[in-house]
Amino acid sequence: MEQGINIGKLFGIQFRLHYGWFIIFGLVSVFLATQVFPDILENTSSLQLWVMGLATSLLFFASVIVHELAHSVVGRANGMQVKSITLFIFGGAANMSEEAETAGSEFKMALAGPASSLVLAGIFYVLYINLNGQSPELAVMNYWLAQINLILAVFNLIPGFPLDGGRILRAAFWQQTKDLTKSTRISTIAGQIFGYLFIAAGIFIVIRTQDWLSGVWLGLLGWYLSDTARTSFRQYTLQQFLKRVSPAEILDTGMPSAKSNQLWADFANRTDKSYILVEDENGLAGIINRHNLKNADSLKSKPLAELYTPISQIPVIPPEENALDIARRMNEDDIEIVRLAGEDTQTGFITLDSFIAYVNKAADKGFTNA
Fold first, then answer.
1. Mean pLDDT of all residues in the chain?
2. What's the rounded Cα separation, in Å, for the pair 76 and 70?
3. DSSP string covering 71-112, please?
4. How would residue 90 be classed by pLDDT, with cut points 50, 70 and 90?
5. 18 annotated binding-site participant
6. pLDDT > 70 fraction of the chain, expressed in percent and rounded
7. Mean pLDDT of 74-103
8. Cα four-point dihedral sign 67, 73, 76, 78
9. Catalytic site residues (predicted)?
């Protein structure tokens, strides 16, 4: 259910490239090869500048991976599960299936990323000093990497959720108030304020200096920060709500049924439901998931018996799990249907559609409003 291209695993963590990453990778490479390096290295060939730009851009995103990996390793050491790390247009993000259980764990995990970036900045700066008189090209690359890692660390330490600094701020309030929701709201507001300040600064730069590139980029960062702060708080609120929802509340009670010997052509147009119960002479045999049917028009002459997923292959969940546990299971295993243990096999199913419908109905009542 996650978008992106898998590029490998490290420490059991899946790494992905979001499709938007290629845009920013190209922009950074072009910026370095045509703006930064030519101003410093006057006698360097165009081909060499482009090679330097591409190599430095790759090293920059490798630095982002180290930043996110530091979060993940410390998070795992404190009991948090990390499924994947994704690089996208504004940087990177570690996909953790659960929040920190204590303020101390949150603080250590949040601090690990900026700390690793500061260490990288120091390493690249030492390399710059040692290479400065020997290889100007390598020295310039390392100097830029030292700068950008320092900027990455400082930016992420801005005390606004969901940046690392915002999580540190949340951990501090959490430690003092023992109220995670209140602490999250405070750090979210801080994140939105900093986002609006960035936008205002971008507008000011455009008006006063006519530097459209810097102004627009700063404005985009501000928009990203304020929007992700609001979105992250809604996600947190949704997670807290789902922890209080029992599996019985999200059962799909509207699934139509059909006989296994019926043809798909005879049944397909009778309902627009995504999931269909299929019965044979022994009772319920399986479920058809329309989302999994490829080239549905070519299946019209096939009996439903050839299209369903057997009941024995539907994952079973214990009744003590809450809706958040189920959502994580469905997301991590990329499944749309689960069966509630101990329930009637005709009605004890939770589907992606029933889950979304329940959440949308609850959202209409305002539970996710920040």
1. 85
2. 10
3. HHHHHHHTT--EEEEEEETTEEEEEESS--SSHHHHHHHHHH
4. low
5. no
6. 93
7. 75
8. negative
9. 68
Please indicate if the annotation marks 252 as binding a ligand. Answer: no
Q: What is the DSSP string of 264-295?
A: HHHHGGG---SEEEEEETTEEEEEEEGGG-SS
Predicted TM-score (pTM) of the model is 0.77
* Residue of 68, 106, 279, 336 with catalytic role: 68
Q: Give me the amino acid identity at 299.
A: L
> Given its phi and psi angles, is residue 132 left (phi above 0), alpha (psi -120 to 50 degrees) or beta?
alpha
- Mapped onto helix, strand or coil, the DSSP state of residue 20 is coil
d(C-alpha 82, C-alpha 75), whole Å: 8
Which single residue is written with the structure tokens 């247009």? Answer: 89
Rounded Cα distance, 192 and 232, in Å: 11
How far apart CA 243 and CA 238 sit, in angstroms, is: 9
Q: Please check if 291 is assigned to a binding site.
A: no
Label the pairing between strands 13-17 and 82-88.
Answer: parallel
SS3 (DSSP) at 363? helix
Largest CA distance in the chain: 84
- DSSP result, 53-69: HHHHHHHHHHHHHHHHH
Residue 89 confidence (pLDDT): 59
Using CA atoms, how far apart are residues 223 and 203, in angstroms rounded to an integer? Answer: 12
- 108, 75 Cβ separation under 8 angstroms: no
Burial class for 19, CB neighbours closer than 10 Å (0-12, 13-18, 19+): exposed
Q: H helices then E strands: how many in the chain?
A: 11, 11
364: part of which helix (H) or strand (E)? helix 352-364
The runs of H, that is alpha helices, within 161-304 are: 164-177, 180-209, 212-242, 264-267
Q: How confident is the model at residue 16 (pLDDT cuts 50, 70, 90)?
A: confident
Q: Which residue has the tokens 């000093």?
A: 129
Note if 68 is an active site residue: yes
pLDDT at 267: 76
Is 60 within 8 Å of 145 (Cβ atoms)?
Answer: yes
Residue pair 70/10 in contact by the 8 Å Cβ criterion: no
Residues 154-210 have pLDDT tens digits of 988 999 888 899 999 999 999 999 998 899 999 999 999 999 999 999 999 999 888
Closest CA to 55 of 38, 33, 40, 35: 33
